[in-house]
Design brief:
The complex is a heterodimer of chains A (335) and B (467). In chain A, 46% of the residues lie in helices and 13% in strands. Chain A has 335 residues and is of the alpha/beta class. In chain A, the strands form two sheets. Chain A has a four-stranded parallel β-sheet, sandwiched between helices. A four-stranded parallel β-sheet of chain A has the order 6-5-7-8, sandwiched between helices. Classes of the chains: A alpha/beta (335), B alpha/beta (467).
């Protein structure tokens, strides 16, 4: 069921990194919007040829993936969202000839900057593709809104009480979205679960993280998340089918933790944790991911729920130890 | 009046002996905030060592009165900030932008800006992990920039007074300090966040913007400058609210003063780096560069100190007298080192720093006095080190390498620092065929024989290449 890169038809890709980059604009070029979410351990090791060992594991793996598959990419679009991710494009610009477009994603609440940057991106991609993007937007918006509606239905199943859909299955479906495929699988075996309900929060879950999610779900039910690579895109809902509507929807989604100040992020997550009736939180961080590492203590104070910290470089070399910790956390939460 | 002996680097104990030759009149001549009652600061390094700056025992200092005056002033900053508070001045923390917002704050009478992140040197000067340990307790990861010491300092309340207000710049710059600032805001401090734009090179074929070119030749869209102007206007309005004063002529005066410092520092660097024999040590020079940020909380006195240092350097250059070996190899230094000892150490092993990229380019460039002041500040900031590409950041070093002025590059990193992790290998590639040594600056007490051996080997390689 999992989607492999080789399964993607021979359409060229536009690699992107940030949930604030509108995929409708990318797909209006005729290319597939392909989110750079690679966490394969071997790729990550290769990535150390281009960035130091203390660079984000996801960034290192993505660099290696893009360099290895450079012929597949028509362009790369990034933002200044996180510093390492932003600087990844410097490295890719040096090691490949793929056109790179880097948007300034405001860290503070500044709608004007975002709006101007979207206009800039449209112009760049129109030149690159030779397509009039605004003319194709309606079709692309409708197409991706349909995908998000289907994914919301799946999300409702994992949110229900008892939960009936595994987040590892949700992850499988979400991969299609992130890889630019609109025909997502919708049929999964549904089994009610009475395991402790947890909310997953933190760094990116990669395409290769299915095993990790299944490991968590041996003892816990992940009933919601605020994680790139899982369900963050469900917060995007475009009502006006044009460029203005895209700007509104993408800017108004709950901001990342690196928004300054990050109060809105906390308010959003607190609301989700309450709505999804969670017993605990999984704080998942990648090595050297400052944006989340710095905030874990604040999360414990603010959400007032048991929080299991899991830090990884995607290798999961200490899997037995990790399993024991997850099991103990599950036992602690169990009524 | 004390007369400088033959230039030399000396130890703290040697300074204690020499200090006896400095008469009281000279000691009383140098004061901060122009206050002769409690503003004295000329002390031998041993005084500051007694109060906790223990690394001074291991360092060697320039033996000029100008250098002594500089160190006395710099190590006195904490006292100075508390005195400022006692005497009714407003203390304003300007975080993250390293060198521009402070100029706006300084325009307001009796307002003292300071950069809490500069406390990152304190754990090293103090040979103490107290601040770093507390930062960890407060949630800062250990693999993050040493500027996390600032988070702990806000809790300790012993290093600087509680700021009357805080301006925090974030955006297209390093993540570590952005996270640290957010953690400080979580402590309950009153903040204004400011957006730092990206210096994006324009697309070759499609442009929706008019472009601006910096003095070093980098282009960027004018609208990014406009964003910054709006941010600076917000800072101005807040300061008007805090002080009740609204006179933009004062901003022009503040810019002129900042330019006075920047011009002096540029002259100091140029004279020192071009001299046949190094007339001033690298550690003192780094301290001088960082004075551009806010004049160590007293810009007027800092200017007088810089003038004295410049005179000393000019005199030494005229006589062609240096403080380190004549055949020391010229190198460039990238990223400031948190541990000052390294700057002293490289001179002991025959290297000489003649170019730097200390992430504060924005604080070194001259501000245009002929245009509207907020635009002038924005244009100067758009030359910042960390808001553009790595290639831009090291372009001047690359040029100097090609002309043979520099024979090697030393990069000092912090483990987990976001730009360090991503830039180092790219720099090595961009500086191809040039000797580059990149080291991680370890936590206090961490400079091992292994690190020293790597530095020695680097020095040996550079010396061998000359043969």
């Amino acid at each position: 069921m999992e989607l492999n890169p080789s399964d993607i038809p021979d359409t060229r890709l536009i690699g992107y990194t940030c949930p604030h980059i509108p995929i409708e604009i990318l797909s209006s070029t005729g290319c597939k919007p392909y989110c750079l979410l690679h966490g394969d351990y071997a790729l990550m090791q290769q990535g150390t040829r281009y960035a130091r060992i203390d660079a984000c594991p996801l960034v290192r793996a993505n660099i290696a993936y893009v360099i290895e598959n450079k012929s597949k990419f028509a362009a790369l679009v990034g933002t200044t969202g996180c510093d390492m991710s932003r600087r990844m494009f410097d490295i890719l610009g040096e090691h490949t000839r793929i056109p790179v477009y880097l948007m300034h994603m405001p860290r503070t609440d500044n709608r004007q900057i975002f709006s101007n940057e979207i206009d800039w991106l449209v112009k760049q991609l129109e030149y690159l593709s030779g397509e009039k993007i605004t003319e194709r937007l309606v079709r692309e918006i409708e197409s991706w809104e349909t995908v998000r509606r289907i994914m919301r239905e799946l999300d409702a199943k994992r949110m229900s009480r008892p939960t009936t859909l595994l987040t590892s299955d949700f992850h499988t479906a979400a991969q299609y979205y992130y890889k630019g495929e609109v025909n997502i699988p919708t049929t999964f075996s549904e089994k009610p679960s009475s395991k402790p309900r947890v909310y997953l929060i933190g760094s990116e879950v990669s395409y290769e993280s299915g095993d990790f999610l299944r490991l968590l779900e041996d003892d816990l039910s992940i009933v919601g998340d605020f994680v790139c690579g899982l369900s963050r895109f469900l917060n995007i809902s475009i009502s006006e089918k044009n460029l203005s509507g895209i700007k509104e929807a993408y800017y108004n989604q709950p901001p990342c933790i690196y928004r300054r100040p990050n109060r809105v992020f906390y308010d959003h997550v607190a609301g989700q944790i309450k709505k999804r009736i969670c017993d605990g939180i999984i704080g998942f961080t990648l090595d050297y991911c400052d944006s989340y590492e710095f905030e874990l203590k604040k999360m414990e104070e603010r959400f007032r729920l048991p929080l299991l910290r899991i830090r990884t470089d995607y290798s999961f070399q200490k899997i037995s130890q990790l399993k024991t910790r997850i099991t103990a956390f599950g036992e602690m939460l169990a009524p | 009046m004390y007369k400088d002996p033959k230039p030399k680097k000396i130890t703290m104990d040697e300074w204690s002996v020499r200090f006896k030759n400095i008469d009281n009149k000279t000691i009383k001549k140098f004061v901060y905030y122009n206050n002769h009652d409690w503003g004295l600061y000329l002390q031998p390094p041993a005084t500051f060592m007694v109060y906790g700056t223990r690394e001074l025992r291991r360092l060697r200092f320039d033996n000029s009165l100008a250098a002594l005056r500089m160190w006395g002033f710099v190590f006195n900053e904490s006292e100075r900030l508390f005195r400022a508070r006692q005497s009714g001045k407003k203390i304003v923390a300007t975080m993250g932008d390293l060198g521009t917002v402070s100029i706006i704050v300084m325009a307001f009478p009796d307002c003292i800006p300071f950069y809490p992140e500069c406390i990152w040197w304190t754990p090293f000067f103090n040979e103490s992990t107290v601040l770093l340990d507390l930062a960890s307790e407060l949630g800062a990861p250990e693999a993050a920039c040493f500027s996390r010491a600032a988070l702990a300092a806000f809790v300790k309340k012993a290093y600087f007074p509680k700021p009357d207000y805080i301006f925090a710049s974030t955006g297209a710059t390093c993540d570590d300090y952005s996270c640290i600032m957010q953690s400080i805001e979580h402590l309950g401090y009153d903040f204004m966040w400011l957006e730092v734009p990206l210096r994006r090179s324009p697309a070759k074929h499609v442009s929706m913007d008019s472009l601006v070119k910096t003095k070093n030749g980098f282009e960027y869209p004018r609208r990014f400058e406009e964003y910054l102007i709006k941010e600076y206007e917000k800072v101005w309005q807040k300061m008007v609210e805090i002080t009740g004063i609204d006179d933009q002529n004062l901003l022009m005066v503040s810019i002129k003063k900042a330019n006075q410092v920047r011009t002096l520092v540029e002259k100091i660097k140029r004279t020192t780096y071009q001299a046949g024999n190094a007339p001033f040590p690298a550690l003192e020079l780094m301290t001088i560069e960082f004075g551009n940020l806010y004049g160590y909380a007293d810009m007027d006195e800092w200017i007088r100190i810089l003038e004295m240092i410049y005179e000393t350097i000019v005199e030494r250059t005229k006589k062609n007298i240096g403080i380190i070996s004549e055949d020391a190899i010229p190198i460039a230094w990238v990223n400031p080192t948190a541990d000052p000892y390294l700057l002293d150490y490289v001179e002991r092993i025959g290297l000489r720093v003649v170019d730097t990229e200390y992430v504060i380019n924005q604080a070194l460039v001259e501000i245009d006095e002929q245009i509207e002041p907020f635009r002038a500040l924005a244009q100067s900031f758009m030359q910042a080190s960390l808001i553009g590409s790595t290639a831009q950041r090291i372009s001047s070093i690359n040029k100097a390498m090609r002309t043979g002025k520099i024979e090697g590059i030393l990069i000092t990193n912090m483990l987990g620092g976001s730009h360090c992790a991503m830039e180092t290998k790219l720099m090595e590639r961009l500086l191809k065929d040039k000797p580059v040594l990149a080291i991680d600056v370890p936590a206090p007490f961490g400079i091992t024989e292994q690190i020293k051996t790597r530095l020695q080997a680097f020095a040996e390689v550079l010396h061998e290449r000359r043969k």
